[in-house]
Design a protein that fits this description.
seven-stranded mixed sheet, four-stranded antiparallel sheet, globular, mainly beta
Length: about 120
């Protein structure tokens, strides 16, 4: 069984920065794509950013230019550097890893990010 362990969430003022980290508890699969999603109260979960094993990153329009996703595939770890944070970024952030095999589909437990105005 693989668990994704997230860290780095918290409370920050608008304009501030936070870095989220997510590491797999066991390196028994090869990640094909890693990413971050978020869910605000009353909203559906939405993609924030994803990155492939080859390093290709895709961002939601709402975070382009402010957030940067990076990964260490050898360590099955993914990061999200968030800058110029806005109150609208307040949500629970979830990391996700999809392995080459369909059965390797893992989600983190979520970490709260709160941005005060």
């Amino acid at each position: 069984q693989v668990q994704l362990v997230e860290s780095g969430g918290g409370l920050v003022k608008a304009g501030g920065s936070l870095q989220l980290s997510c590491a797999a508890s066991r390196n028994i699969f090869t990640p094909y794509e890693m990413g971050w999603y978020r869910q605000a109260p009353g909203d559906q979960r939405e993609v924030v950013a994803t990155i492939t094993r080859g390093g290709s990153a895709v961002y939601a329009d709402s975070v382009k230019g402010r957030f940067t996703i990076s990964a260490d595939s050898a360590k099955n770890t993914v990061y999200l550097q968030m800058s110029s944070l806005k109150p609208d970024d307040t949500a629970v952030y979830y990391c996700h890893m999809q392995g080459i095999l369909a059965r390797d589909d893992y989600w983190g437990q979520g970490t709260q990010v709160t941005v005060s105005s």
